[in-house]
Amino acid sequence: MENVLEIKDLRKDYEGFTLRDVSFSLPRGFIMGLIGPNGAGKTTIIKLILNVVKKSAGEIKVFGADSLENEVVVKSRIGFVHDTPFFYEYLSLKQLKATVAPFYKNWDDDLFHRLIREFDLPLKKAFSKLSRGMKMKFALALALSHRADFIILDEPTSGLDPVFGRELLGRLSEFIQDERKSVLFSTHITSDLERIADFITFIDQGRIVFSSAKDEILEQWGVVKGPNELLSEDNKDFFRGFRKREFGFEALCSSVSEARRRFGQRVVIEKPSLEDIMFYMTRRGKDA
Amino acid sequence: MGSLILKDLIFNKKFILLIGIPYSIYIGWLGSKVVSLREFTAVGAFIICIVPLLCYAREDKFKGSVLSSSLPVTRKDIVLSKYATSWLLMIVFYLLSTAVALVFPGSKLSLQGVLNIKMILIYLLLLTLFISILLPLLIWFGMVGSFVFLISLQVLGIITLWLGSTKLTKVSLKGLIAGIGSFFAALNSHLGVVGYQIFLLGIILLLNFVSFKCSEFIFKRKEL
C-alpha cells in the first residue's frame, strides 16, 4: 500500500519539551486521527510536516518524497487548516482568497465559490468579523479548492458546536471517496474520529503510544471491570491503565483475549471508546 | 515569488495607501523646502526604507510567516520576496517623493540635481545600507526586538561619542566620517566617473546579496 505520509524517528527539542522517536505512516486513501491530550505534541508534528518549525532529527516523507527537499511540490498537494487560521484579520474573504489562490496551479475557482455558497460564507465580510466556526469553514474551503491530495487539519473542531463538527466530518468523508486522497486530523475530541478515522495515532508527552487501524484497536482492546481483589501487581502491569473504586476497578487492556484467559467470568469486558483509551493511557500505572 | 509579492501587497494595501503614499508626499514636500540635496537624500532614504519594514512588522502581529511557510514556497523564496517587495516599495516611494519635491511650488531642488546617475546611485546606496541592516534584524528579532537592538546601538553610540569628547579614547567620529568621505572622493578621481558609478553599483549589489544571505540563514532556522 502506498503511503501518503511516512514519519521516521522524528525528534524536536524545545526547552522543557521533547518530541521524540515519532514514527508512523498513513496509507493513501485513508483518514488518520492524531489524538492525545493538550500539549502532547500533535500541533508540533503538524508544524514539522509543513516546515513551520524545524526538526531536530528524523525523516518526514510526503507522497514518497522528502518533505524538505521537495518542499514546493509536496506543499502544493497539501491542504492545511491550522488550529488558529493565520490570516490578516481585517481583509475580506475575497481578498484573502486572492492572496492564497495564485500559489496553487490546480486552484479551482468554481469549486471555491461552490464551497463558499455551501458553507454560507460572506465573501465581502472581513475575516475578523466571522465566528470561529466560519473561520474554520473558510480555511477548509481554501484547503479543498486547490484539489489537494492530502488534507492536514489541526484541531479543527476545538471550541466549535457539534453541528459544525458533523458537517466537517461529512466533508472529509466525501473528500476521501475517490480513494486517492488522505486526511490527517489532529484532535483531542475523540468522538469526532470514531465516526470517520481509519487509523489512530495516539501521542502523549511527546511520544507515540500507538499507531494502528482504528477497528483493530477497538476490537483488540477492552475495558475490564471487576472486583478489586484481582488487582494484583502482575495484573496491574498487564493493564495499560486502571482506576480503582470502592466496589471494584475499571481498567484498560490491549488484548481482550488475554484478559479473558486471565480473568475468565470474574470480570466484565466492554468495548472501549477512543476516549476511554485516551483517558487510561494518559494515566498509565497510576490509580486514576 | 510573484505570488508572495502579490500577497504582501494585498495584505498591506491599506497601509501602503494610507501611510506609505502620504508619507512619501510629506518627504517630497519637506525636500522641496530644503536647500541641501544631501539632507533630502539621507533623511528621505531613511524614512522611505522604514515603510516596507513597518509592513513586515505588521506581519508579526498576524503571524503571517506561519501562513507563508505553509504555502507551497521555500523559506528562501519568502526572504527573497521580502527584499523584492521592499525594493519595489522603496523605488515607488523614492520616485513619488522626488517628483513631489521637484514639482512643489517654490521647490529649491532641480531636476538635474536630483535625477542624475550619481545622485540616484547614492540614494540607492543609502537605501541599501539601511535595508540591508534593518531587514535581517527584523527577520531575526521582530519589530520590538529590532527596536531594542537599534536603541542599544544608539546608546552605545552616545557612550562612544561621550568617550570621544572626554578624550579618554582616540575615537573621532568626525574624523571617521571625513575619512570615509575622502576615501570615496579619492576613488572617484582614481576610477573616473563611469568606473566610480560601476563601483557604487557593485557595492549596492554586494550589500544586498550579503544581507539577503544573512536573512536567509536566519529565517531558515527560525521557529515560527
Structure report:
The complex is a heterodimer of chains A (288) and B (224). Chain A is an alpha/beta fold and 288 residues long. Chain A has helices spanning 42-49, 71-76, 93-100, 109-118, 132-145, 162-175, 190-196, 214-220, 233-238, 256-263, 274-281, and strands spanning 3-14, 17-27, 31-35, 57-62, 65-66, 78-81, 150-154, 182-187, 199-204, 207-213, 222-226, 241-245, 248-253, 268-270. Chain A folds into two domains: 3-212, 3-Layer(aba) Sandwich (Rossmann fold); 221-281. In chain A, the strands form three sheets. Chain A has a six-stranded mixed β-sheet, with helices on both faces. A four-stranded antiparallel β-sheet of chain A has the order 2-1-4-5, with helices on one face. Chain A has a four-stranded antiparallel β-sheet with strand order 12-13-11-14, with helices on both faces. The longest helix of chain A is centred in the middle third of the chain and has 14 residues, at 132-145. The mean pLDDT of chain A is 88. Chain B has 224 residues and is mostly helical. Chain B has one domain. Chain B is 87% helix and 0% strand. Chain B has helices at 2-11, 13-33, 37-62, 64-70, 75-103, 111-114, 117-165, 173-220. Chain B is globular, with a radius of gyration of 19 Å. The two termini of chain B are 20 Å apart. Chain A binds chain B through residues 47, 50-54, 71-76, 78, 80, 82, 84, 86-91, 95, 98-100, 102-104, and chain B through 2-3, 6-7, 10-11, 14, 62-64, 66-67, 69-75, 220-221, 223-224.
What's this entry about, in short?
The complex is a heterodimer of chains A (about 290) and B (about 220). Chain A is an alpha/beta fold. Chain A is built from 11 helices and 14 strands.
